Amino acid sequence: MTDADPLFPDADSRFVVESDCKRCPALAACRNRISWGNGSREADVFVVGEAPGAGEPNADRWRGGNHTGLAYTTRHSGRRVRRLLAAVGHPDAYYTNAVKCFPRAEDGETNREPTAEERANCRAHLETELERVEPEVVVATGKHATKTMLAFDGKSLDGFVDSVLEPVELDAFDATLLPVLHPSYQDVWVSRLGYSPAEYEAAIRERLP
């Protein structure tokens, strides 16, 4: 995988499910923009994360979904995940988050974990996206995204690390769930899982259509 910038998503590819959604008053009050899913509606691979971060409003382009209105457009996680998917043969994947708005922490700058109510409020948006795209594989980046997807089948997560790269059938959407490491922790955990970076990338490629 190279360090070159992946393609930045076209703003016209945003899937706006509910314009100016205010189901979560606390999130609506602290967000700059709703970070909608984006990418091909015909994608075989559907990438889902937990929620957008605060982002970097002064960055040239990769400012984050809280400022661009496009999921997975941060300079670190957004670019890294998009590079990974392009490297394994899916530059046209669809990208979204389980929660579409930046969940600001009490310090006013960092993000917090979305509440159960916030996840539930946004669940219908994610379901709408999944039903429209109809992917073969859902790539969940990290523990919280994996838990969100398993919940559609009434399943729980018992130990995230053991679930990484272990495909699970999602009956609710006739798709396969593939948990992967969150990009923020990838460098630390890839070796602990017994992979080199190249082997980890190859393992993901083998599990995608």
Automatic annotation (TrEMBL):
SUPFAM superfamilies: Uracil-DNA glycosylase-like. One of its GO terms (biological process) is DNA repair. CDD domains: UDG-F4_TTUDGA_SPO1dp_like. The keyword Secreted does not apply. InterPro entries: UDG_Type-4/5, Uracil-DNA_glycosylase-like, Uracil-DNA_glycosylase-like_sf. SMART domains: UDG, UreE_C. Pfam families: UDG. PANTHER family: TYPE-4 URACIL-DNA GLYCOSYLASE, TYPE-5 URACIL-DNA GLYCOSYLASE. This is Uracil-DNA glycosylase family protein. It comes from Halopelagius fulvigenes.
